[in-house]
Amino acid sequence: MKLNVFCSQKMDNLSYLLIDDNKSAVIIDPSWNYENIEKKINSEKLLPKAVILTHGHYDHSEGASYFEQKGLSVYMGLEDLFMLDKKLKKPLPLKDNDKFSFLTDEIICIHTPGHSPGSFCFLCGKDLFTGDTLFPGCCGRVDLPGSDISAMRTSLIKICNLPDDTLIHSGHFYNGGESSLKIEKERNPCIINLKNEEDFLNAVL
């Protein structure tokens, strides 16, 4: 799988374009940079299959309605519909452990509420796209409407059950935006303090 990363300077958002050897492509979190994503698709004559959203916050979904108008299906946790700035005509639901075969490598959907009730991570091979659930050195905010710090702790424990060589691709360019699960287990205070709820609360808040 080939991975293209698009960074929006507005809020350091990271959008991803996953491409397989057949030129099939999946878009993750089209932000304000959606026109650059479309240019890449057109210049390489890619075959976009779908848009998948890690969650519904406007900075991650800004371009979703644009691609929907172009004929692509948009998948998201419907719990986050109330967050959308630009409404979708027919959003399709994500469920925990959904598996997509849009690409040669299967994409597994992992429900990870906490930052928002409809937050999802997407696992494709060893690559985990975490949105605003997990960043290098920290985790997503839990002081927003729909956030839940207890759910965040449960979701991070869930992520930590993945292999240590899992590569983390987060939703913003915070601390470089990329890491590995092994490194996060060693250095990220939100991960290190997962076992004790009080310690976790102190690390996150």
What does this structure look like?
- It is built from 7 helices and 14 strands.
- A hairpin with a 7-residue loop joins β13 (167-170) and β14 (178-180).
- The protein has helices at residues 34-43, 58-61, 64-69, 149-159, 181-187, 189-192, 197-204, and strands spanning 2-8, 13-19, 24-28, 47-52, 73-76, 92-93, 99-100, 107-111, 120-124, 127-131, 134-135, 138-139, 167-170, 178-180.
- With 205 residues, it is α/β, with parallel strands linked by helices.
- The radius of gyration is 16 Å and the shape is globular.
- The model has no long low-confidence stretch (mean pLDDT 97).
Gist of the model:
The protein is α/β, with parallel strands linked by helices and 205 residues long. The protein contains 7 helices and 14 strands.
Stretches where pLDDT is under 50 for at least 5 consecutive residues are: none
- Note the gap between the termini: 37 Å
Integer-rounded radius of gyration? 16 Å
Mean pLDDT: 97
Spatial shape: globular
> How many beta-strand segments?
14
Order of helix and strand elements from N to C terminus: EEEHEHHEEEEEEEEHEEHHH
Largest sheet: 6 strands, mixed
Name the beta content range: 25-35%
Across the major sheet, the strand order is 1-2-3-4-5-6
Tally the helices: what do you get? 7
Task: Return the structural class.
Answer: alpha/beta
Question: What's the quaternary structure here?
Answer: single chain
Helix content: 10-25%
